[in-house]
Amino acid sequence: MTDSPFYDEVQELKRRYPDWRSATLPALQLAQEKHGYLSPDALRETARALGTTPAFCESVASFYDMLHLAPVGRHMVEVCTNLPCALAGAQRVVDAFEDELGVRPGETTDDGAITFRTVECLGGCDRATVVAVDERYHELVTPDKVAAIVEDVRGDA
Amino acid sequence: MATPELILAHADERDLTRLGEYRAVGGYRSLERALELEPAAVVQVITDATLRGRGGAGFPMGRKASLIDQKNPRKYVVVNADESEPGAFKDREIMARNPHLLIEGCLITAHAIESRAVFIYIRGEYLAEYEILARAVEDARSAGLFGDVDVVVHRGAGAYICGEESALLESLEGKRGQPRPRPPFPPVTGLYAAPTQINNVQTIAIVPKIIELGVEEFVKIGVRSSPGTAVFSLSGNVVRPGNYELELGTPLRTLIYDVGGGIPDGRELKGIIPGGSSVPILTPDQLDTPLDYDSIQAAGSFFGSAAVIVVDDRCCMVQLALRAAKFYMHESCGKCTPCREGTRWLVQLLTRIEEGDAMQSDLDLLVSVCTRMLGRSLCALGDFAVYPVSSYLRKYRAEFQRHVDEGACPFGDESSIAGIEAPIDAHTHFPTVEVPA
Question: Is residue A91 within 8 angstroms of chain B, CB to CB?
Answer without folding.
Answer: yes
